[in-house]
Amino acid sequence: MPLRYVNVLIFTVVIMLAGCASAPQEHAMVPASGATVVETATVTDIEGEFQVALELMKAEDWHLATDKLAAITAANPRLSGPWTNLGIARNKIGDMVGAEAAFIKAIDVNDRQIVAYNELGILYRRSGRLEEAASMYNQGLKINPNDERIHWNLGILNDRYLANPAQALTHYQNYQQLTQSQDRQLLSWISELREQISQNNVATGANR
Q1: Which helix (H) or strand (E) is 108 found in, with range?
Q2: Which of 125, 107, 108 shows the shortest CA–CA distance to 116?
Q3: Closest CA to 82 of 3, 93, 56, 94
Q4: Helix 148-156 crosses helix 114-126 at what angle (to 10 degrees)?
């Protein structure tokens, strides 16, 4: 029986602007059917096992998903998709060290695994490792300069944590342009940042 290609990593983007919240939320990825396929492999028996893992993740049964994905990665260590999902599942059960290790392994296997860069950026930001978070996001943008999730997350990082309004504005604007979002809260943040930058320029004499 000839080898056939099977899909081993399926993600969809969750775009959620905090319309009533005072602070924005990061964009991560969760498994779902019908989303973009980002990796394939010539392994005939992976598809069924991986579909079970995806269903467990969709059901938010993170402990069982972790066990299933750990078994898949042990049997197929050269596939970055299962490593990435294992990192997500481990993160959900509070295993930050294990999650980081899985994401790093995913990137080691496939240095263009943009999902892993994004998830590592979120993990590092939440751990207070802000410069490392910025590095992961920026490496992701080198793979795809138009990834709206990473622009959004860099906007959050620069706006709320690094106190860099110019960079925050750039990434929020990029996100808005890429998604054509008319979310009032996002447009308000963009307006506020423009005003803040303008006032800073006046105060420092940058326009003179």
Answers
A1: helix 96-109
A2: 107
A3: 56
A4: 10
CA distance 20 to 185: 8
Say if residues 184 and 19 touch (Cβ distance below 8 Å).
Answer: yes
Residues 121 and 119: their CA atoms lie apart, in Å, by 5
How crowded is the C-beta side of 145, counted as CA atoms within 13 Å? 1
Output b/e per residue, 67-78; b: 16+ Cβ within 10 A. ebbbebbeebee
- Reported as a single tens digit per residue, the pLDDT across 27-39 is 665 443 333 334 4
Q: Where are the beta strands (DSSP E) in 1-99?
A: 6-7, 10-13, 29-30, 36-37, 40-41
Phi–psi pair at 171, nearest 5 degrees: -75, -35
| Whether pTM exceeds 0.90 | no
Rounded-to-integer distance, Cα 16 and Cα 45, Å: 35
Contact 64, 49 (CB under 8 A): no
The whole-angstrom separation of Cα 33 and Cα 67 is: 21
In the three-class reduction of DSSP (H, G, I as helix; E, B as strand; rest coil), residue 152 is classed as helix
Answer for the pair 100, 123: CB distance below 8 angstroms, yes or no. yes
123-171, pLDDT tens digit by residue?
A: 999 999 999 999 999 999 999 999 999 999 999 999 999 999 999 999 9
What are the pLDDT digits (tens) for 161-181? 999 999 999 999 999 999 999
C-alpha dihedral sign at 28, 30, 35, 37: positive
Domains defined for the chain, CATH in brackets = 6-204 (1.25.40.10)
